[in-house]
Amino acid sequence: MKKLSFFMASSLLALVLVACGGSDEAEQNGENESASSDGDKTIRAGIGLNQDHPQYQGLLKFAEIVEEETDGSIQVDTYHSGQLGDDRSMTEALQLGNQEVTIPSTAPIANFVSEFSVFDIPFLFPSEEVADEVLQGEVAQGLLEELEEADLVGLAYWENGFRDLSNSERPVETIEDFDGLSIRTMENDLHIEAFQALGANPTPMAFTELFTALQQGTVDGQENPYATIYLENFYEVQDYVSDTHHVYSPFVFLMSKQFYDGLTDEEQQIVRNAAEEAGEYQIELNREANAEYLDSLQEEGVEFSEISDEDRQEMVDAVQPVIEDFKDNIGADVVDGIMEAVEAAQE
To answer: What is the pTM (predicted TM-score) of this model?
Structure first.
């Protein structure tokens, strides 16, 4: 079942936003054309995921809010599917002032501000509700402020979601099942060493290269939320998916500091509020979508494995030495602060 009610709702939303003046993408000759060119300032906002993903629907919502609140004086042009590059190259473009917005996961951000690796600690968040509370807390919000040292402005946390494993070799239900699997990971040292501790062979590569790598057998598997696995058609080249839930991955709404500093105080508040409001909308869509897409993956013939609490604990125990090794690199105070916040959120 490749067309869900969610897809129809998403498509309707995109059409409504275009009709109302939001800057959805119009592709002609492979180029993204703006729906309007009357704005005094233009935000080029790019993501790596495709146009059906809740992240892109959230980006359209951001565009709608900004253009409405500024009476069109700020125009938002949106680009999906890596049209402007991968997460790292788009983040670098923000630093240089060549692009205004991107929304990467925290893992690639750690290449610019190492403290963001705290969110890549395996099995850190036990639930979405705990993640919500921690991300709104003092330590996580303080990390957004640290981005300014890297010529970036962090406006809000959005949601990628719990990352789960898919592969083409075998069901993964125990730690032994990881043995020898080649798994694409993001370009993040903590992720890489955590998968090595589980017995896998991690292979970092850009997301835009992933489908081809899976198709050609360069790697056996990958790890992403169910929505990404389905919407990127990975079920065409992957036979198994497991609810490893090994990392809860936030997105971070990034803006170029050079561009942000050039906005008036009022405009800065508008883009900040829009990022937060659109983020709430995106998170709601994302959670609905992930539940639907797990069903859809199974309907496409993917075999689903649910990991028991006992087997998951073995995985947790296996990666503990990696966490200790990285603690000082991340920042012991940041790690302790986030872990204390997680504990407090569970009380």
So the answer is: 0.81
